[in-house]
Amino acid sequence: MTAPTHVAFAITCGIVAGVPETSLGLLAAGAILPDMDHPQSAAGRLFFFLSLPLNRYLGHRKSWHGFPLWGLVTVAGLFFGPLWWVGAGALSHVFLDCLNVSGVQALSPFSEKVCVLFDRRFRLVTGSQAELALLVLFGTFAWAGHYVGTMGGFRSLIAAITGSPRMAIEQYRKKGTRLCFLRGKIRWKNGRTESGRWQVVGLEGFRGIAVMDGARVLHVPLEADILTARLECTEETLQAVNLSGWAVTRKEAWFFDGSWWRHSRPGEIVFGQVLARKLELEVADLGEDQQGDVRNQD
Question: What is the pLDDT of residues 4-36, one digit of tens each?
Fold first, then answer.
């Protein structure tokens, strides 16, 4: 396989596996290193001073293409993190070369057996149109994997497709204090259904969630059941503080009293865990350290 195909395969595997973006470059670098044993390869031309002796003494697609060598590099990554990704990228190279017509001595130096994938009819010639098609396929998978990643992963994609309330709540559980909304349909206890978009206030217990319904807090499933829900989160983060006493809020806020989320308008009392887009509190019954924490949110 050519260098672009190896790089595309390694990056595709990394994106689908959820590898951090900062490590994708190391995966790509590792994916071309095994070809240093061929002077005419991309890695061989770049590292010609190493490629020539490697090719002379080891040959092409032998020990330098072996799973044992790059497996050791990957294990070394347990002690020096970047080597993990370099080794993983190189292992993906060796695996993909098993799809070549000529195969690769992937177990070298312990065995000279040539390892291949599939029957010869289904293996590829390096640089052929079939390899080009494979490169395009990997590129498509990489783009799709990146798109899924921006949505929060496959679970988030499934949640968006199915509108599962439970999955939407689980998604929100991981968002911390991000400002999020639920879009979907609810059924009131009197049987009436309603579609809409509700701001999420917070979680209540294992399955409960509080959302804003107009100017009041709606407790689900105490007052209504969610039929379908898709989570929409903004880049805005709500400010938060835990109060040991009580305070008066100068702006709209929400507070958790230990059982339920409550809504407070400017001039009303808040206590416990307090959230607001902009915290402005007149505090009372607080220690000096906590008063400082609250003032820092202003």
Answer: 899 989 988 888 777 887 888 899 999 999 998
Nearest CA to 30 out of 17, 49, 11 is that of 11
* Residue 202: closest CA among 259, 266, 162, 151: 259
Give the pLDDT confidence of 106-128 residue by residue, as tens digits: 898 898 898 888 888 878 888 78
C-alpha to C-alpha distance for 118 and 219, rounded to whole angstroms: 57
Distance CA 205, CA 275 (A): 17
Give dist(CA 232, CA 101) in Å, integer: 48
ω into 34 cis (within 30 of 0): no
Residue-by-residue DSSP string for the chain: --HHHHHHHHHHHHHHTT--HHHHHHHHHHHHGGGGGSTTSHHHHHTHHHHHHHHHHH-SSSGGG-HHHHHHHHHHTTTSHHHHHHHHHHHHHHHHHTTBSS-B-TTTTT--PPB--S-GGG-B-TTSHHHHHHHHHHHHHHHHHHHHHHTTSHHHHHHHHH--HHHHHHHHHTSTTEEEEEEEEEEETTS-EEEEEEEEEEEETTTEEEEEETTEEEEETTTEEEEEEEEEEEEEE-EEEEEEEEEEESS-EEEE-SS-EEEE-TT-EEEEEEEESS--EEEES--HHHHHHHHHT-
Q: Quick one: tokens of 41?
A: 């390869």
What's residue 225's pLDDT? 93
Look at residues 144, 72, 59, 143 and name the one whose alpha carbon lies nearest to residue 105. 59
Euclidean distance between CA atoms 5 and 86, whole angstroms: 16
> ω into residue 109 within 30 of 0, thus cis?
yes
